[in-house]
Amino acid sequence: MNKSITVSKEDYLKAILEAECEGEHVISATLAHWLSVSAPAVTMALKRLKRDGYVLVKNDGTVRLSAKGKETAYRTALRHHLIERMLAEVFGMEWYEVHDEAERLEHAVSPAFEAKLIEKLGEKGTCPHGNAVLPDSPARQRKRGLIPLYDAQEKSDYIVANLYERDPKLLLFLHKLGIGPQTPVKVHSKNYDETIAVETAAGRSTLGRSAAERVWVRAR
Length: 220
Description:
Elements: H1 7-21, H2 28-35, H3 39-51, E1 55-57, E2 63-65, H4 67-90, H5 98-105, H6 111-121, H7 138-143, E3 147-148, E4 156-163, H8 168-176, E5 184-190, E6 195-200, E7 203-208, H9 209-212, E8 215-219
Helix pairs in contact: 1-2, 1-4, 2-3, 4-5, 4-6
């Protein structure tokens, strides 16, 4: 990793790359939402990233990564992925707790430690939330035979494939309902108020549309 890259720059570059992979049209407002920062802060950051050759900003405001930016962003995403797996697979940390911890630790991983993590865990596995190093777009998820839980059929059984991992409150909420990676879930009904009634090993519960759209499942 280039030693001149700051933690803040790594966060911005990774957010741009992940948003692109999820099919987002990346503009300043996208980054402000993803990183929970102000619009002026995003403007200043993008100016610096553009000056240093990490991003390209088109006349319509679209933000794209340069080749240099993509390489830096991928290395940060890979370190995050490896740390999540290390925390879960080696230290037994719960799947719904590892994302925030990895956000803090990803910037401190040296190339030598990164190489050891790859040697130990491999680069191609999935993280504790069921995701690869880079997230798939909804279109690619559907091509793999997955659907959001909200789109599931009533009176049908599914297995959770992966979850949106950047919202710790959502992850804890799902965990309490018995919804986690590779857990079975039965959809009982889809309701008029845009909620769905489901059953897991933890019992019956109701999810709103926002939460149910962030859980991807496959038919059992």
